[in-house]
Amino acid sequence: MPPIDKPLPPPADHKPAAVAVLADYRHDDLLWENDRTAHRIYGHALEAVEPPSGSGIDSWGKQFVWPFADRQLRTGDQHGYHGEGIDFYNVGSGRGAGGLGIWHDNKLWSSRNFIRHRIRATGGKVADFEVDYAPWPVDVGRTVWETRRFTLPLGTHFTRMVSTLSSNRPGEMIVGIGIGKRTTGPVAGQMSADRTRGVMTWWGPEDGAHGRMAVAIRVDPVTIVEQRDDADNHLFLVRVKAGKPFVYFSGSAWSKGAGGFDTREKWQSYAASQVLDFSVPVR
Fold first, then answer.
1. Fewest Cβ atoms closer than 10 Å to its Cβ: which of 14, 81, 218, 233?
2. How confident is the model over 52-104, as pLDDT tens digits?
3. What share of the chain is helix, strand, coil (3-state, %, to 5)?
């Protein structure tokens, strides 16, 4: 492990819990975690403070089963190691750990930070929330906006996402769901994509005492158009219809943390073997 900076204040208890927390003290970051993995997305207020801030998904190294991300963020030094986990994953303007955009004219058109949120469940066996993304342009001929629901129960590294992309034009869209290429330093990680099973995994480079981050996305293979890269991301391109929800999954792990994923092979095997439900829920 890295050397410990100032330790975090102790948790209220040491029981596992799945939580979703709005960090209104830090430009409306929205944190969610369970007993295995921890994440963050960025609120609208951050756009003026840390440009270029966008809708990519941040992933944190998590060491223990109880929640830590809110206490870590409140230190003002979330990038340090305070004994329970660490944030050394750099989303930048890319998609991070499973963000998306519209693929058009060989380019990914993505939203800015979320503008509204609704926490549906927190503190128990599942973290469940929704966010809205304001309309954004896709070239000059289309405008798109999104509502996305995130659900993370205990016992898994995968967050289930239900995305509804609406548009001022009806019909089909090609959506790029991505993993950032260089998110833990200047060196690219190792990517593997299995189109027939809808699995993409990324094993990050060794970052000194920080170890490695591992990311995976899972999509319904029947929706895949192709696997592509742009300058910042590895992408699965999937076919969706405007206004019709679709499901995908994003997962991550820390090589020094929960789950014991200390090799690329272990992470790839786990990501490919999980039985995941791509059926769209009925409202």
1. 14
2. 789 999 999 999 999 999 999 999 999 999 999 999 999 998 999 999 999 99
3. 10, 45, 45
Cα 18 to chain centroid, rounded: 16
198-225 confidence digits (pLDDT tens): 999 999 999 989 999 999 999 999 999 9
CB neighbours (10 Å) of residue 17? 20
> What is the model's pTM?
0.97
Q: Based on C-alpha coordinates, what's the Rg of the chain?
A: 18
Q: How far is CA 204 from CA 52, 56, 152, 269, in A?
A: 23, 17, 23, 16
What CA–CA distance (Å, rounded) separates 252 from 159?
A: 9
Q: What is the torsional sign of CA 234, 238, 243, 249?
A: negative
pLDDT at 281 over 80: no
Instruction: Classify strands 58-62 and 85-86 as parallel, antiparallel or unpaired.
Output: antiparallel
Query: What's CA 25's distance to the chain center, in Å?
Result: 21
Cis link prior to 11 (omega < 30° from 0)?
Answer: no
Q: Report phi then psi at 48, rounded to 5.
A: -80, -15
Residue pointed to by tokens 């300058």: 231
CA dihedral 204, 6, 13, 41 (to 10 degrees): -40
